[in-house]
């Protein structure tokens, strides 16, 4: 039996309206994320809704068409908000639920700040063919840092859980890079590593890189890297608390299946972005729980 919203709000130290607000952000995004969180207890579920809301807000800042200076100021405001949260102060619905999550689940300040730093990498200079070190740092900040927060909300703060966040975050981010290749190029971004592009004599200019058929080889190599991270994450999942790791298993299974579909579609023009049908999401999610 589900707890009344009022009881969850009391546990989280916020209002019912705060909980409704963060859930609305998730629902408005029309993502399958909300469905995947149904297995969590109400406190953990709303903690994840708050984390998603925070990530959505700072990601929208980075993707906005505004001036870099304005974006930097907006991101700095969120750094200031994070500092206030760790002093026990909140000034909005998202912040109120985040504060409750920080106190309930022992979330670390450095992970929130890392996410903001990752968004700022997109703001200060468009990420165009970064070197391997910069790309890995970017993946850690925008994906693995989110994983480190999520895994604690799920209920496991062990060293194995940290390793899951490390590898699964990178696997998911590389998968997103490969699925969003054309969309990112249209925004003037190119997240494929400089070293690989140069090895295959591919232009580092975003709008020209897909003219070279060898882009397929670069993306194949990146897909194998993602698979290596998926395998490593799966190995560490076996060492984690069974109930806590279930949402991560579903996410891993879903994205691994997506990567396979994108690999079949390829990366040559005309580019086709892989997606999952509702039925595929259900089947893959159930299969993920059985691994």
What would you say this structure looks like, in words?
The protein is an all-alpha fold. It contains 15 helices and no strands. The protein is globular, with a radius of gyration of 19 Å.
Unreliable residue runs: none
- What is the tally of beta strands? 0
**Fraction in beta strands:** under 5%
Shape: globular
Query: What's the story with the biggest beta sheet?
Result: none
| SSE string | HHHHHHHHHHHHHHH
Oligomeric nature of the chains? single chain
Please report the number of helical segments.
Answer: 15
Give the rounded overall mean pLDDT.
Answer: 92
Distance between the termini: 27 Å
Question: Which labels suit this protein?
Answer:
single chain; 291 residues; 15 helices; mainly alpha; 74% helix
Describe the structure in brief:
By secondary structure, this protein is mainly α.
